[in-house]
């Protein structure tokens, strides 16, 4: 191709390349950085073959089925990162929101196995391990997250909220269809996400068995947001680091899931759905399609959230 035509071709392609870049915005100085997500369709959930391959125990199978075809006809925005300590503490201090009296955490045990227990005096200001101001907030309940969204909506005049399960999964998949947004063997996880790995095993003096990813990502507990590469939508930490609350009430399967991507507000609304897995979760649970849940008032040191905003 002649040099002149090459130059013209490159110039013609510039708008397309620019359009491929995610649009980011922030509605106030200390608001979360948001990413505009385009409309589209995808298959939500996971089939039985994936659950068997991933070694999910029979009592946990079926939560992500039957797979549902979801169409999001309108775009929305979602946080580029989970909400950070700095962002959440501005809300807590501005509203005098109490941090609660306890939080579930993983504590070392005499036999080195570690176990989850509700621990007094653990709060979002002191979750039982060190954090930087840019680490994701943890020890926040679903009710805390919803209150933060309401506060931010009042401040900005925009409609902030927790994402629906379908929105979360669509944003997390970013066009992929596998159990995780990266490919490769299990050891590849540590280059893509903050996961339950040998760093965690060694800290808690646990054997490096199959419940740990066979690698080390350098973090035991939470990692600062953005420490790992983004997905194709430009979103960080959609898998790993912290579980993320969604708006949906808990339902044991995807039967009856709204096909337009809205939140499911029927079912057990005292319990809410969480997605994404965390620094403490083994490979079976760290999958885009896996669904977990928790009481709306419970706080845990492996659970935070990110916000969505209607366009």
What does this structure look like?
The structure is a single chain. With 311 residues, this protein is an alpha+beta fold. The chain has one domain (23-310): paralog of FGE (formylglycine-generating enzyme), CATH 3.90.1580.10. The protein has six helices and 13 strands. The chain has helices spanning 3-20, 48-53, 85-95, 142-156, 165-173, 198-203; strands at 24-25, 34-37, 40-44, 68-72, 76-79, 102-107, 115-120, 160-161, 243-250, 268-275, 291-295, 303-304, 308-310. The strands form four sheets. A five-stranded antiparallel β-sheet has the order 1-2-5-13-8. The chain has a four-stranded mixed β-sheet with strand order 11-10-9-12. Strands 3-4 form a two-stranded antiparallel sheet. A hairpin with an 8-residue loop joins strand 1 and strand 2. It is globular, with a radius of gyration of 20 Å.
A few lines on this structure:
By secondary structure, the protein is of the alpha+beta class. It is built from six helices and 13 strands.
Low-confidence stretches: 1-19
Question: Which radius of gyration do the C-alpha atoms yield?
Answer: 20 Å
CATH class: Alpha Beta
Q: Quick one: how many beta strands?
A: 13
Biggest β-sheet strands, sense, barrel: 5 strands, antiparallel
Identify the strand order in the major beta sheet. 1-2-5-13-8
Shape: globular
Beta fraction: 15-25%
CATH topology group:
paralog of FGE (formylglycine-generating enzyme)
